[in-house]
Amino acid sequence: MLRQIRLAGEVIDYRIKRSGRKSVGLRICQQGLQVNAPHDLTSAQIDAIVLGKTDWILEKLVIWRNKLSQDTAVGFLPGTAVFPLLGDLWKPEITVNGQLCMVPADSAEKKLSDRYLSSEVFRKWMIDWYRQRALACFSERLALYADRLNLPYPPFKLSHAKTRWGSCNSSGVIRLNVRLVQLPLFLVDYVVAHELCHLFEMNHSSAFWKRVAAIYPDYQHARRELRNY
User: Fold this and answer.
1) Same domain as 141, residue 221
2) 203 pLDDT tier (thresholds 50, 70, 90)
3) What gap in Å lies between CA 89 and CA 143, rounded to an integer?
4) What pTM, to 2 d.p., does this model score?
5) At 189, is the pLDDT very low, low, confident or very high (cuts 50, 70, 90)?
6) Is residue 78 included in any domain, yes or no?
7) Which domain does 91 fall in, by range?
């Protein structure tokens, strides 16, 4: 529920989130002011509580707005962070013509630019960079292991699941987590082999593991290693 209230002459939008809690909680988040309140409090009662916290709210809003302003103005400085790809570390840099690129983290090259980027621009660029590498890598490994199983190349999609590296549904569609491309290639291969074998056995029976072992003999080691991630 979205409401407005005037605090010290400034009109503030705030959201009310109802729950079974017994007290009122206020917090400043990306969407602004949020008020967590019990179900039995009226809107007028909540307004009164918000008014009583005017100084705190305005102070926190100033801090939050300054932070957002700094993030937009400063953002991310290429060359200051590293990112994993197939078990190796890479770092983003800006080329002489102003384009973002990735170079090995142990590269002896000095930073090509000291120019900051918007955090949002950099975030979108990194998401796309990982997506493109994942598509290329997974396509290649799926073709390799499908051939070993005498299977046609299967349909697959990228996933962003929080708890699964891969999955295979009854329609034969394989989903591979885009973050899998950050791991060493032998673990990518294990997940690919695992999901392809589900096209034969939609379970984890002894017959399933026998088929996995036929195309990926060291699967038990890979399973143990994957738990570390």
Assistant:
1) yes
2) confident
3) 26
4) 0.62
5) very high
6) no
7) 83-127
- DSSP per residue, 11-36: EEEEEEEEES-SS-EEEEETTEEEEE
The Cα–Cα gap between 184 and 182 comes to 7
Quote the tokens at residue 207. 């017959």
CB 134 within 8 A of CB 158: yes
Tens digits of residue pLDDT in 70-126: 554 456 666 667 788 888 888 887 766 667 778 787 766 555 555 666 677 788 888
Is 16 inside any structural domain? Answer: yes
Q: Most distant CA pair in the chain: distance in Å?
A: 73
Say which residue the tokens 């997506």 belong to. Answer: 131
Q: In this structure, what DSSP letter does residue 183 have?
A: S
CATH number of the domain at 155, please.
3.30.2010.10
Q: Given CA atoms 220, 225, 228, 229 in this order, what sign does their dihedral have? A: negative
The domain boundary, picked from 73, 91, 111, lies at 73
| Pairwise CA distance, residues 206 & 203, whole Å | 9
3-state secondary structure of 149: coil
82-105 CB burial, b ≥16 within 10 A, e <16: eebbbeeebbbbbeeeeebebbee
**Domain presence at residue 155:** yes
Alpha helical stretches, state H, 17-175 = 43-52, 54-73, 119-148
Token pair of 33, please? Answer: 């002011």
